[in-house]
Amino acid sequence: MKIAVMQFPGTNCEHETLVAVKTVGMEGALFRWNQPVAQLSRYDGYVIPGGFSYQDRVRAGAVASKEPVMDALREEAALGKPIIGICNGFQILVESGLLPGTGKVDMALAQNVMVSNGKIVRRGYYCDWIKLKHDTMPNRCSGSFLISKGALLQMPIAHGEGNLVTMNEDLIKRLNENGQVVFRYCDEKGDNVPDFPVNINGSIENIAAICNPEGNVLGMMPHPERAFFSWQLPPHHPKKHDQDSPGPGRQIFESMKRYIEARA
Amino acid sequence: MTQIILRVWLKIPDAEASTVRNTLVRRMGLQQILIDVKKERLFSIDVESGNPLDLAKSFAKELVNENKESCKILFDELKFEGDYVPVKVGLHIEDGEAISTRERLRNRLGFKNVTDVKKATIWKLYIAGDKPEKVAKEIAEWLLINPHKDSYEVLEKTKKLPECR
């Protein structure tokens, strides 16, 4: 079971992602954006990590989405192989039309706008530990295959452009009806409070992650690879010093592995 | 009411414009007709009183980093010169940076006569051939905007204007 961890100019966390892939028992390798695209079909799954591909020039993910390697990934996605885009990887998937999966650019991840009590209290880049609620059924999506509906996960976010907006009035309704909203930002109790600091970027309906209609392509703003081991958790977390305990982000990679096994 | 327009560009190499040019040449196949790409930041500042030229120079001191940028000042009408197609790209959703700039000018710097600020990016596309505006439109829709947050306008170019410094 081989996973390609995609590497564009400006990607970060690719090595952490590779460690996560290998730790759950999959083979992994970095795949540079300018490698021969024919080599991509050798892999069973793909992760596009976060970072700032092409320094976010024009807008986050826009230039990377035009690379030939994304056309090749589109073909692999059509075969049902799993693709997980994390943060900038999510932005690239949106700009390339792989998400929400309508075959065209159907939404944008705009600059963060933090709203509280009807007032804008902050804008732009933000990083923090946040809570996520899994809002679709298990088995629905490759990256949350093993996660129960309603489960809460703690993960870090670090982005300036994660505010899901769309001019397509039916899109959000369709995403909800099809179970394509995978994670939403929530508070400690699991409530999707629309205000900052629960909704950390102003995203419509607190959406933090979506998948395509087939469920094999997942895009998420939070970073599971930065919450893979318990020692990566924030200082106050009770499991911080429990070296043997898995971090919540591990479930994303475990899910990807199980999804590939289930397809075989 | 006067609108003060600042056209601001880098006088050091503009890596973002180079990336756009490379992407259009290598990925959109425009090597035969795309000669160059340059970029400007655009501030449109509405003021309800005061000497427009003095105000414009004051705004330029705050919004333009003269170590790396140059600018032109215009009033009420956006004009362009040169052999390129200007494409104006701005947000059609709320522009937080423009609001922050307005609040900074009004509340931190005391320009209470500022009533509105709008920001945009001007992409200056040097295109050969007989249909440069059509190509510019295709470029805008292919790379320069995401229609779910951005809008664009292909502008007309006009005669040369003096620089502000």
Plain-language structure description:
The complex is a heterodimer of chains A (264) and B (165). Chain A has 264 residues and is of the alpha/beta class. Chain A has one domain: Rossmann fold (3-Layer(aba) Sandwich), CATH 3.40.50. In chain A, 19% of the residues lie in helices and 25% in strands. In chain A, strands 2-1-3-4-13-12-11-8-9 form a nine-stranded mixed beta sheet, with helices on both faces. In chain A, β12 and β13 form a beta hairpin. Chain B has 165 residues and is α+β, with helices and mostly antiparallel strands. Chain B has a single domain, classed as Phosphoribosylformylglycinamidine synthase subunit PurS (Mth169, Chain: A, 2-Layer Sandwich), CATH 3.30.1280.10. Helix content of chain B is 31%, strand content 34%. Chain B is built from four helices and six strands. Chain B is elongated and about 50 Å long. The interface between A and B is medium-sized, with 25 and 21 residues.
Short description:
The complex is a heterodimer of chains A (264) and B (165). Chain A contains 5 helices and 13 strands.
Strand order of the largest sheet of chain A: 2-1-3-4-13-12-11-8-9
Q: List low-pLDDT spans of chain A.
A: none
CATH architectural label of chain A: 3-Layer(aba) Sandwich
**Order of H and E elements of chain A:** EHEEHEHEEEEEEHEEEH
**What would you call the structural class of chain B?**
alpha+beta
Please write the CATH class name of chain A.
Alpha Beta
Q: Could you say which structural class the secondary elements and strand pairing of chain A correspond to?
A: alpha/beta
Number of domains of chain B: 1
The general outline of chain B is elongated
Largest sheet of chain B: 6 strands, antiparallel
- The first-level CATH class name of chain B: Alpha Beta
What is the 3D shape of chain A? Answer: globular
